[in-house]
Amino acid sequence: MRRLAVLGSTGSIGTSTLEVVEGSPERFQVVALAARASLDRLEAQVRRHGPRLVSVESEAGARELRRRLGRTATEVVWGTAGLLQAADAGADLVVSAIVGADGLLPTMRAVTAGTDVALANKESLVMAGHLLTAEARARGTRILPVDSEHSAIFQCLAGNGTGGVRRIVLTASGGPFRTRPRSALASVTPEEALQHPNWSMGKKITIDSATLMNKGLEVIEAHWLFGLPVDRVDVIVHPQSIIHSLVEYVDGSILAQLGVPDMRIPIQYALTHPERRPTMVPRLTLEALAGLTFEAVDRAKFPCLDLAYEAARAGGSSPTVLNAANEVAVHRFLNRRIGFDEIPTLIRKALDAHPRRAVGSVEEVLEVDREVRRRLDEH
């Protein structure tokens, strides 16, 4: 039986992970859960899975959850310290599904503890990929991708390695504004941007998908996961989200991974790797596909993608600046403080204002993150 810690258990990846667990209760034991503040959902998860430890964001939330749980044996902790406890709670596999920069410390704690990580928190690799991957190599731990695109690449590389790879191609749905004119993006509302055509996700990643910043972050993630230069990681729009990504080899062969757009497939693959197990997900019926189409990215309409490539090529502190500025911009857009078309403008200004420097520790990475947020708060 594989012991799991699920960080971000009440979000879309976390809840899907627990659905996979419930489909094979004889194979998994949940030893720790962590969430921010969705106490109703978290309480139900604790009662269903009986973890030894559960962490919430605030002390008040911890008090309330303890009151609700009564005499249950689950220990309730809170804050950053509690989150780190959950990441180092004796699991065989930590599912890192916390959104944003907050996922970096617990992900690093799990790796440092010698625990394999099923990684859905792409920001950890964007901000500190050089540190996280070096620590994983030193500890002999595995970072298993959960994102559907990186899981697809991982599967296409199985048994081959990257020696014969010409390039990786990440597919993008194009988001809700793929066919909308560039001139109309200024009037986009948060409600419109949250209507992803294919996937049901949390708010932040859904907005990132609408701007294509999500694909930019995935380019950086792929660079660290698979050890290829970012200029050998390409992006193509595939509106149907059936082909989740492709690997082109030097001999002209292209391998692709196909499946219905359901995150339970890559989640289960990470949880059971190297095994493959039956899933609860509907099968992809090839005969029913009307056709698979592909388009080049309209980079003028979606400048966030090129901002990510620029930050990745610059290296050092630049990807952390990119990520922090994007998180601030998405938050402001969702709160109607800036327009949709102002998201890349804010990120551009942050990158231009920050002198690039080397970052040699997680503490230095987090200091850059704080600097960027402070500077943006002043303007």
Reading the helices and strands in chain order gives EHEHEHEHEHEHEHEHHHEEEHHHHH
Supply Rg: 20 Å
Helix content: 40-55%
Proportion of strand residues: 15-25%
CATH class identity of the largest domain:
Mainly Alpha
Protein described:
The chain contains 15 helices and eleven strands. The protein is globular and about 60 Å long. Helix 6 (122-139) links the parallel strand 6 and strand 7 (143-145). It has two domains: 2-145, Rossmann fold (3-Layer(aba) Sandwich), CATH 3.40.50; 150-261 and 283-377, RNA polymerase sigma factor, region 2, helix turn helix motif (Rna Polymerase Sigma Factor, Chain: A), CATH 1.10.1740. It has helices spanning 12-23, 39-49, 59-69, 79-87, 104-112, 122-139, 148-157, 190-193, 203-211, 213-226, 264-272, 304-314, 318-334, 343-353, 362-377, and strands at residues 2-7, 28-34, 53-56, 75-78, 93-96, 116-119, 143-145, 165-172, 233-237, 243-249, 254-258. Strands 4-3-2-1-5-6-7 form a seven-stranded parallel beta sheet, sandwiched between helices. The model has no long low-confidence stretch (mean pLDDT 95). Helix 2 packs across helix 3, helix 4 packs parallel to helix 5 and helix 6 runs parallel beside helix 10. The relative contact order is 0.11. It has 379 residues and is α/β, with parallel strands linked by helices.
Q: How would you sum up this structure in a few lines?
A:
The chain is an alpha/beta fold and 379 residues long.
